[in-house]
Write a structure and sequence with these properties.
Blueprint (H helix, E strand, L loop, with lengths): L6 E2 L1 E10 L2 E7 L5 E4 L6 H9 L25 E9 L2 E9 L9 E4 L2 E3 L11 E4 L11 H13 L5 H20 L5 H35 L14 E6 L1 H6 L4 H14 L1 H7 L10 E6 L4 E2 L5 H23 L1 E2 L1 E4 L8 H14 L3 E5 L13 E6 L2 E4 L2
Parallel strand pairs: 1-13, 4-15, 4-16, 9-14, 14-15
Antiparallel strand pairs: 2-3, 2-5, 5-6, 6-7, 7-8, 10-11, 11-12, 16-17
Helix pairs in contact: 2-4, 3-4, 4-6, 4-8, 8-9
């Protein structure tokens, strides 16, 4: 889809009921950047988290359903509602848990009609975010990078989360069967057949996203080839047996081979107490392109800049693949940038054309946005727009 036909999806209104530190909140915003200012603990991140629940998954903190509710005795409900302007005009998206509900399940609605999950919201809005928790991404365990990777995929493929969850359930089923002293091999055959199909589907979706992301980064490399970019380009690749096989063989062949490998590995996996091969162990390899070093070997500042550059490249990929710009949530990202990098980030966000929500404690960090951004003062349980 060309830039001329790209849809800029945005939130026009956000309403919260008994969500985190907000007994109630009602925010209306325009088309420019939104800046949420307040001291640490004021509730700025809570607002971004509420928006993140309009994307598939558990939100930017990966919280449980009961953690979202305002702290009161007994089971409590909570609700997030947003007026969204997107490809299909204006719609109202809502999600939450009903108070005193025995099921304690999250419900999702579009214009008041119940839908199966937040994956249905993807037709109207896509959301990407960067948070301080991501700072340790390059030095942390592979599980953190897989979670980050699956969030990248989920932004362009709303059903990816369901496949990943199904894969995890199939792995748990196989592990339980292996623990039993006597198990009918036919049961294991059936579980491993499902497991192999899910594993190849998850691995293929990850590969497509990473390959497209790498291609998009390569297209913009000319401006960064001198290594002086404030947000250097990244190299991205997957490290996993299934992914290496998919790079050279048809998916059906790889699925058959993986299923046979699972059967052969039963004694080894039984002894280990877990499945020792598959995309549940894949790692995302990220490198500092201009320096040709692994991202984890860069300085703290280089890693932050690399992560922001990767986030911007991902947002551009979402736009390219879905035909609409994502809503971007930047939690306390600007505070750690020097003035030159702040200006560069604001310019990159302008070029992207996405609606951006940013948090911070220091108003001076957003001085370059004066006259263009809407600024809100956030205090515990309250939010007020600056005049």
């Amino acid at each position: 889809m060309s830039a001329a036909t790209t849809v800029t999806a945005r939130l026009a209104r956000l309403r919260l009921t008994d969500f985190r530190s907000y007994p109630s909140a009602d925010i209306r915003v325009g088309k420019g950047p939104i800046v949420l200012l307040g001291q640490n603990g004021a509730g700025k991140t809570n607002l971004l988290e509420a928006i993140s629940l309009l994307a598939p998954g558990r939100g930017l903190r990966r919280a449980t359903l009961d953690q979202f509710a305002t702290r009161r005795p007994g089971p409590q409900g909570w609700a997030v509602s947003a007026v969204v302007e997107g490809a299909y005009g204006e719609v109202v998206l809502g999600t939450g848990v009903e108070a005193d509900s025995e099921a304690r399940t999250r419900r999702c609605r579009i214009d008041g009609e119940t839908v199966g999950s937040a994956a249905a919201f993807a037709a109207h809005i896509r959301i990407v975010w960067l948070t301080p928790d991501m700072d340790g991404l390059f030095l942390g365990p592979p599980s953190e990078r897989r979670r980050f990777l699956d969030r990248l995929v989920l932004a362009v493929d709303a059903e990816h989360g369901a496949r990943v969850n199904a894969l995890e359930r199939a792995l748990r089923s196989r592990n339980r069967l292996l623990e039993e002293p006597t198990t009918d091999p036919r049961y294991l055959d059936a579980v491993e057949q499902e497991l192999a199909a899910l594993a190849i589907a998850v691995a293929a979706a990850r590969m497509e996203t990473v390959q497209r992301l790498a291609a998009g980064i390569a297209q913009g490399r000319e401006a960064h080839d001198d290594g002086a970019s404030l947000f250097p380009w990244a190299t991205v690749a997957l490290d996993g047996e299934v992914e290496r096989a998919l790079a050279t063989e048809p998916a059906t062949v790889v699925e058959d081979h993986y299923r046979m490998a699972l059967r052969v590995a039963r004694p080894r996996d039984r002894a280990a107490g877990r499945t020792l091969e598959g995309p549940h162990l894949t790692d995302l390899l990220v490198g500092h392109g201009p320096k040709a070093i692994p991202a984890g070997q860069g300085s703290t500042g280089e890693q932050k800049a690399l992560l922001i550059g990767l986030g911007l490249a991902h947002a551009r990929l979402v736009t390219e693949m879905t035909g609409g710009t994502p809503v971007m949530l930047l939690d306390d990202v600007v505070a750690y940038l020097d003035p030159e990098r702040r200006i560069a980030l604001f310019a990159a966000l302008d070029a992207l054309g996405a609606q951006v929500w940013m948090t911070g404690a220091d108003p001076s960090a957003f001085a370059a946005l004066a006259g263009r951004a809407e600024t809100f003062a956030v205090t515990p349980g309250h939010i007020e727009k600056h005049a």
